Input
Amino acid sequence: MITASQSDTHLQLGPFQGITDVYFRQEYHSFFTGIDRTFTPFFSGIHTENSRNLRGPEIDPALNPTETLCPQLLSNDGEEVVRFASQCAAFGYKEVNLNMGCPYPQVALKKRGSGLMPYVEKVALMAETLRNETGLKLSIKCRLGYYENTEIDRLLPIFNSLNLTELIIHARLGKQMYAGTPDKMKFAQLVPKINCPVVYNGDIFSWEDFKENQRLFPQINRWMLGRGLLADPFLAADIKQQCSLEASERKEQVYRFVTSLYLRRRKAKNDNPAILGRMKELWSYLHLSFSEPAEAWRSVRRSRSFDEYEEAVANIFRNQQWIGKGFRGESDPDSYKTEPSTKIF
Ligand SMILES: Cc1cc2nc3c(=O)[nH]c(=O)nc-3n(C[C@H](O)[C@H](O)[C@H](O)COP(=O)(O)O)c2cc1C
Output
């Protein structure tokens, strides 16, 4: 059996609608190491060859690394994927990603995201359009299914016919949203049946979790991190054993990062008050890495103005310790189970 070594560990940051926008990605990369590849939160509604939805900073090649950022589309229409891919290629991007994982009912009920997974004929129709496109570099991010983990079995022949650059599997069902545990046994059974590189995604919250997954899936060397990295931005560097900073130094670095991100967003969006909502979405994970997480979250969540937000954040960094490894899947009703924010950017 081929096994992956620590040195080829390839880490990706999962997209988060409302959090991992262009400013987050830029600031993240200037403060932390370890992530090899990122994805845009999903685009949708690409109805024309020169879509207005693709004119903003989120995908502007002047602001984004076209080599390592992969634009993502939420769609169930092959023609739309092709239109999206050709516009991304014109910007210099090397690959596009199709979202077949989004679990939110308003998306899934329209047979999009993970809601597309039960509809094999619809996926087959899309695949027919995509197979005719030479030069299209496509990856897919999916779940095990929407209702049942057997849905992916029926889709594998289609996925295998698409010459995908990789298949990212968030090893849960769509109907689980983000709750419950990933079905690792099912994931392990799938891997040998897939003819392209496979990326594991789901509940990697610490170096120990990563090691355990590496032990379970020795053939895998591509991993996608999600909520664990939003709670502790050092997670990728820790997995790669690249960071020797003490907790107090880590806290300073995180303070510089969140401040820089906040100021960047205020400047880019002319102090639009919706920026507070964006920062709170990040804090809905980040607070978990502090010594008094409930207190940290309460003070940030309650802030109603930029001044109140700044005071709350300053107090957290002044009074609390950085613990790190925050996200353990604990159920904070106001954090990871909330709907993605409406787009303001
Ligand atoms: C608020 C929120 C927004 C998300 N937005 C996207 C998205 O735009 N595209 C996508 O493929 N996944 C999205 N995801 C899923 C994450 O990228 C990731 O797959 C998921 O959190 C599982 O990984 P984890 O268990 O390591 O957190 C989102 C998740 C959450 C909680």
